[in-house]
Amino acid sequence: MKLFRRFVKLVAIIIGLLLIAIVIVMVIDHKKTDYLTIGQNEIAGYDSFLIRNVNIIPMDQDTILSNKMVYIKDGVIKNIADKIDIKGIETIDAENMFMTPGLIDMHVHVWDKYELGLYLSHGVTTIRNVWGMPMHLRLKKEINNGSLLAPIFLTTGPKLTGPD
Questions:
Q1: How confident is the model over 79-106, as pLDDT tens digits?
Q2: β-strand 76-81 against 65-73: which pairing, if any?
């Protein structure tokens, strides 16, 4: 009986430690999404800037446009040229870097909002979520009202299946 009580006590301690570890991981994971909040994101405030020395991979030519300047005004590309002369604007030096059009992933399964930042960090600017759930509508609302930094977010309805 003593051995059994020790075993139960050991199991209870292990379960308790596991629960504490799970809570810690959940708290850390929640903090990972802080960078998606627009108010927290410093770069999100820059609607107009100039990128210089960037190599552009266009979709309409079979070449790389080397060392170009790109002028972005109010979040829209306004000019791409060898030299753009604009004073008093935020300038980003993109030497040895490449610029491509945003990528689109038309089959994703989003389970948490921290994934949205991962898409952006890899150049994916539009996603279509399949197997939609109510949480996806809440995410879409946050994205559309400008409080969450994310790719353009399209989602489907619930999964439809028939009898097996």
A1: 999 999 999 999 999 999 999 999 999 9
A2: antiparallel
